[in-house]
Amino acid sequence: MNKNFEGVYVPAEIWMLEIPLNDRFYLAIYNAYGKDTIKADEIMSANFSRSTILKIKNRLANKGYIEFIKTPQEAKQFVLDTVNKGKTCEWCRRKCYVLHEHHFPISKAKGGKETVKICPNCHAVYHSIFKEEK
Question: 8-19: buried (b, 16+ CB within 10 Å) or exposed (e) per residue?
Answer without folding.
Answer: bbbbeebbeeee
